[in-house]
Amino acid sequence: LxxxxxLTGAFANKVVTNTLTGADKRCNINSPNTAFLLxxxxxxxxxxxxxxxxxxxxxxxxxxxxGTGLIIEDLADTDSKKTTHPYLHFAVKxxxxxxxxxxxxxxxxxxxxxxxxDLKRSARRQLLGKKDSETxxxxxxxxxxxxxxxxxxxxxxxxxKNIDGMPIPKELTDDNQETTLGDIDExxxxxxxxxxxxxxxxxxxxxxxxxxxxxxKKQEPKSAQEKxxxxxxxxxxxxxxxxxxxxxxxxxxxxxxxxxxxDVKEKLEKxxxxxxxxxxxxxxECKDKPxxxxxxxxxxxxxxCKDSSILLKKQFALSVVSAAFMALLF
Length: 330
Known about the structure:
- This protein has 11 helices and 9 strands.
- The protein has helices at about 15-20, 85-95, 110-115, 115-125, 140-150, 150-165, 185-220, 225-230, 240-245, 260-280, 310-330; strands at about 55-60, 65, 70, 165-170, 180, 250, 255-260, 300, 305.
- Helix 7 (about 185-220) packs antiparallel against helix 11 and helix 8 runs antiparallel to helix 10.
- The longest helix has about 35 residues, at about 185-220.
- It starts with 16 loop residues before the first helix and ends with a helix.
């Protein structure tokens, strides 16, 4: 419908009233602007009002009225119709503007990249471990940047080839045809792709976090209460209770229900109490110990003896964060 300069197809050229409406005059809106029946002067709908001086426009200016009735004007070029058709004028202009590319200041080859100002700022942080504004070791940057990309072909592959060749499935294109990222030149299409993949990455991140939480949960031993619940779920069915023998379940003939073995239950409850005490006093065994005595469940870190269980929890938390971050990248 919207072309580079104006409307296209059936709306490009003027459509006269008989073509537009099939000469049907039963609708009052399809009447001459000199005797517009929609503003009839009496109840007979025979004496219309002249609206020729105002030229009413409908559907954003797509439809209008002339001396014959309802028409579509010549709209192939809307550049000069800013006053008469402002909505269509700016719609066409917005469509054309959305295709304009941004100025690309990215170095076109590896030689230019070694001295590019924008790349230097990133290289100071990533390759030199400096602030992006610190220039004291800039003399090292050309060789550092070159060593990262190796040669010009690898630089161009990272810069353009790998990105431009990224496949875009047909479900995400306007014409339902597969394409590549480099062939898309419309900003609005790129924005749609950005939000599509941003949402996909969020879902991927959430799934990764859920999986990691499940792994951690599986690694934790079940409490007496949890194991008891598993046994109780069989109810009064003795045969089903026997199937859970490996899970330490036994059928109580007096209470007529499946229960956790008494000795197993007592053992788990005792272990639970001991673990709870350790959690409440995680550093009681390790605190203030000298380095030579910091062994067993203790670990020497940052000149202090610490409980190794705390360090393991920190490491697991870091693994969750790392895996979640990787899910965003791939």
